[in-house]
Backbone:
């Protein structure tokens, strides 16, 4: 729901009804409010109600007498409502149809028990919800939002679910003075807990202690003897490619390695050639990009350093007819030519290709060609043809790489005019059409 829209929630709570309807409505209401919508609750004053929760959340509340459809119609017209959210067993499909006919308002109806509804959006946010069971219960044009993907969780549960623990170990002395710089970057991210490991040899220890004061998401460990435990409890680490890297590697903890001394160069090179996240010259934007990847459990595999299996995977993707039909070169590529091209990339600084892995799945390929560093580059992207819904993830990460790591001012994309899915994806991320030549659209996204 877009900015400036007015949304009315119709729900009740009491000793007999319970409190669940209001509590889950508040979660949805917060989502709409964050997008700029105005939210109003229409409720009855029943015994044992929790209407105060609505007030505490900062939403407007109006009182209704009962479940009269005419009373609700009057209220919708009076408040100029754009969306009516119904979370009430006392308002059935017949009443919804009447309200729709009289006001034309868009209706979102909650449902838990596969009842008939006359609404625009049907929401069953329970993990067991089966959209197929609603096919004969709602209008054919009704949007079905069912199952775990739509489960409404309060912030306290989201925080626990999403919270990541990060270990920072920049050497006992932190000679490069990076601890505070890294913490300032992590401060941009939600649901983060950080353990910083250092020693009394750190000349900037007092400055570090001062910085973390009152930052309850940061814990400082000085001269700790429990490093193995901290590694085990972490989701990923930001460390130097030194002795601690061996320990992190042995514990199979994902990491970002930041080189801070010349004697770490061999380790940094070793890691880079294995597609690990390495920063040889400290760069805030590159670190932020790597942190984003870690939080999303995403790996970027540079084509130069792909394993034999990964080389085969990319070749299979590229030769799939569902991918080839949108390429300039639409004939199949031999494996020999494929390997030759991969080898040639080591000598090129005007292009970079990545195989993107999310968790255990290879989800697609992203690339930049015609790179003019800190100026512009041309974007390429295609998803694993056997996986759906990966476009957003691929686009988010490659744009972040382009603007944060390559520091581009403009990203270009060339798309076939009949590739409607790609055009829709690019437009959703802000690309605009700047030209059209024959069957190609030329699109751009500025920094």
Residues:
């Amino acid at each position: 729901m877009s900015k400036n829209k007015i949304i009315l929630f119709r729900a009740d709570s009491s000793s007999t009804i319970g409190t669940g309807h209001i509590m889950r409505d508040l979660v949805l209401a917060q989502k709409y409010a964050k997008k700029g919508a105005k939210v109003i609750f229409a409720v009855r004053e029943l015994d044992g109600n929790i209407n105060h929760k609505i007030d505490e959340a900062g939403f407007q509340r109006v009182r209704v007498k009962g479940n009269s459809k005419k009373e609700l119609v009057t209220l919708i017209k009076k408040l100029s409502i754009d969306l009516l959210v119904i979370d009430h067993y006392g308002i059935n499909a017949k009443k919804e149809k009447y309200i729709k006919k009289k006001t034309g308002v868009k209706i979102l109806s909650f449902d838990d028990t596969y009842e008939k509804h006359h609404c625009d959006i049907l929401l069953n946010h329970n993990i067991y919800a089966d959209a197929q069971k609603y096919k004969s219960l709602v209008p054919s044009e009704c949007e079905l939002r069912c199952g775990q993907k739509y489960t409404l969780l309060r912030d306290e549960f989201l925080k626990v679910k999403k919270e990541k623990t990060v270990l920072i170990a920049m050497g006992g002395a932190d000679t490069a003075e990076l601890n505070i710089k890294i913490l300032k970057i992590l401060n941009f991210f939600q649901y983060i807990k950080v353990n910083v490991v250092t020693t009394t040899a750190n000349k900037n220890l007092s400055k570090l202690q001062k910085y973390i004061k009152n930052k309850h998401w940061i814990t400082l460990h000085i001269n700790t003897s429990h490093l193995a435990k901290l590694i085990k409890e972490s989701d990923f680490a930001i460390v130097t490619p030194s002795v601690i890297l061996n320990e992190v590697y042995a514990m199979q903890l994902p990491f970002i390695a930041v080189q801070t001394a010349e004697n770490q160069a061999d380790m940094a090179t070793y890691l880079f050639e294995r597609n690990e996240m390495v920063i040889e010259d400290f760069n805030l934007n590159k670190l932020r990009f790597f942190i984003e990847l870690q939080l999303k459990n995403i790996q970027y595999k540079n084509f130069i350093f792909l394993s034999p299996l990964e080389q085969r995977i990319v070749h299979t993707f590229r030769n799939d007819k569902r991918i080839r039909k949108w390429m300039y070169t639409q004939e199949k590529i031999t494996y020999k030519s494929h390997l030759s091209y991969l080898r040639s990339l080591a000598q090129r600084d005007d292009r970079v290709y990545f195989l993107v892995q999310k968790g255990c799945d290879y989800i697609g390929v992203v690339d930049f060609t015609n790179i003019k560093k800190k100026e512009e580059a041309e974007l390429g992207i295609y998803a694993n043809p056997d996986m759906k819904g990966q476009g957003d993830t691929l686009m988010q990460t490659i744009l972040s790489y382009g603007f944060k790591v390559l520091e581009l001012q403009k990203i270009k994309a060339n798309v076939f005019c009949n590739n409607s899915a790609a055009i829709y994806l690019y437009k959703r991320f802000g690309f605009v059409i700047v030209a059209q030549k024959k069957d190609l659209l030329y699109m751009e996204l500025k920094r």
